[in-house]
């Protein structure tokens, strides 16, 4: 049994994911592809039999379900505590007033006069049929989450976010299949990608970004071709246009400068012109290094590899 509005909300979220991942529906309540009515009753602690239930309609979102149940729970409690009696009713949720309103008093089950539909013959559902259907279903979100955690080392929270929708989960897996590091793919999808989608009020399938292009950009970061800062520029391009990141980086001259043979002369020139910073660093003022690195980045228009710069810089200072 579901015993709280929060539990009902969590159940619906889980059900939504399962139905969406099987491809049975896109489960968009606002478009009518999923409908929810609720029945709720309250009973004193220790009482075994259920109290009189009420049905709530006009629930157009999971939030409405949660809020409607929370209100109705308090309403019924107030009725009983005041000595009243809860009637079996159908009530309507008013999202503006945030309360349930009476639609009609329900009849008892016997009054509905249920009878079999003669034009609908019984359907025999064998266990083999059930097993065959179950075996053909895609991997459910809970199993995907566990696989992300165990196989790719994705944190549990991140795995949960990635499996919120089938679209995001499929995109993540396709990106990893293209050779991207799983953790980096997860970070980009949860960070920059989700941020862009939220800001533009669009879904993943409505932008130009492809798993191959996202994976390509991540690999450019990993092999040092571009820096994380440069990657932000690349990302803006590939999410808005069908652009190959490797080709675009070369065309725009955004390749990170990592060759020591090219960096050393630049670093030596900066050091020659900033003897005071060298003296300050040797005197224990570590912030002097930050100034020197800043000058080098300025000279290279931000394209020098910071890691390589620091290695060469420290080696050159020691020789002076």
Task: Set out the fold topology.
Layout: H1 5-22, E1 38-40, E2 54-57, H2 62-81, E3 89-94, E4 99-105, H3 127-136, H4 141-152, H5 156-162, H6 166-177, H7 182-200, H8 211-222, H9 228-240, H10 245-252, H11 260-272, H12 275-282, H13 287-299, H14 306-318
Parallel strand pairs: 2-3
Antiparallel strand pairs: 1-2, 3-4
Domain Asn/Gln amidotransferase: 170-317
Pfam families: GatB_N, GatB_Yqey
Keywords: ATP-binding, Ligase, Nucleotide-binding, Protein biosynthesis, Transferase
Notes on the protein architecture:
It catalyses: L-aspartyl-tRNA(Asn) + L-glutamine + ATP + H2O = L-asparaginyl-tRNA(Asn) + L-glutamate + ADP + phosphate + 2 H(+); L-glutamyl-tRNA(Gln) + L-glutamine + ATP + H2O = L-glutaminyl-tRNA(Gln) + L-glutamate + ADP + phosphate + H(+). GO terms for molecular function: ATP binding; glutaminyl-tRNA synthase (glutamine-hydrolyzing) activity; transferase activity. Keywords: ATP-binding, Ligase, Nucleotide-binding, Protein biosynthesis, Transferase. It comes from Lacticaseibacillus paracasei subsp. tolerans Lpl14. Residues 170-317 form the Asn/Gln amidotransferase domain. It is a single chain. The chain is α+β, with helices and mostly antiparallel strands and 320 residues long. It folds into 3 domains: 5-112, no CATH class; 165-252, no CATH class; 260-318, Arc Repressor Mutant, subunit A, CATH 1.10.10.410. It has 14 helices and 4 strands. It has helices at residues 5-22, 62-81, 127-136, 141-152, 156-162, 166-177, 182-200, 211-222, 228-240, 245-252, 260-272, 275-282, 287-299, 306-318; strands spanning 38-40, 54-57, 89-94, 99-105. It has a 4-stranded mixed sheet with strand order 1-2-3-4. β2 (54-57), α2 (62-81) and β3 form a beta-alpha-beta unit. α12 (275-282) packs antiparallel against α13. The model has no long low-confidence stretch (mean pLDDT 93).
């Amino acid at each position: 049994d579901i015993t709280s509005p929060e539990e009902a909300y969590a159940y619906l979220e889980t059900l939504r994911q399962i139905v969406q991942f099987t491809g049975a529906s896109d489960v968009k309540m606002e478009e009518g592809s999923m409908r929810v009515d609720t029945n709720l009753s309250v009973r004193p602690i220790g009482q075994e039999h259920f109290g009189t239930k009420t049905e709530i309609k006009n629930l157009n979102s999971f939030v409405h379900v949660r809020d409607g149940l929370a209100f109705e729970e308090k309403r019924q409690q107030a009725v009983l505590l005041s000595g009243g009696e809860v009637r079996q009713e159908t009530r309507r949720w008013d999202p503006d007033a945030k309360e349930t309103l009476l639609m009609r008093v329900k009849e008892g089950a016997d009054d509905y006069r249920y009878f079999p539909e003669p034009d609908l013959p019984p359907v025999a559902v064998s266990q083999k049929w059930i097993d065959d259907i179950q075996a053909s279903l895609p991997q459910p979100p809970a199993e995907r989450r566990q696989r992300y955690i165990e196989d790719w080392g994705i944190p549990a929270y991140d795995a949960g976010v990635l499996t919120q929708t089938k679209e995001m989960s499929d995109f993540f897996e396709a990106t990893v299949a293209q050779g991207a590091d799983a953790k980096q793919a997860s970070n980009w999808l949860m960070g920059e990608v989700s941020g862009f989608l939220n800001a533009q009020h669009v879904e993943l399938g409505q932008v130009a970004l492809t798993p191959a292009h996202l994976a390509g950009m991540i690999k450019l970061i990993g092999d040092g071709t571009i820096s994380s800062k440069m990657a932000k520029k690349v990302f803006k391009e590939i999410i808005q246009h069908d652009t190959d990141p490797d080709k675009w980086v070369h065309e725009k001259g955004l390749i990170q400068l990592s060759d020591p043979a090219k960096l050393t002369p630049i670093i030596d020139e900066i050091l020659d012109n900033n003897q005071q910073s060298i003296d300050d660093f040797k005197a224990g003022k570590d912030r002097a290094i930050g100034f020197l690195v800043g000058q080098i980045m300025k000279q290279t228009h931000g394209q020098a590899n910071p890691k390589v710069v620091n290695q060469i810089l420290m080696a050159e200072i020691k020789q002076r």
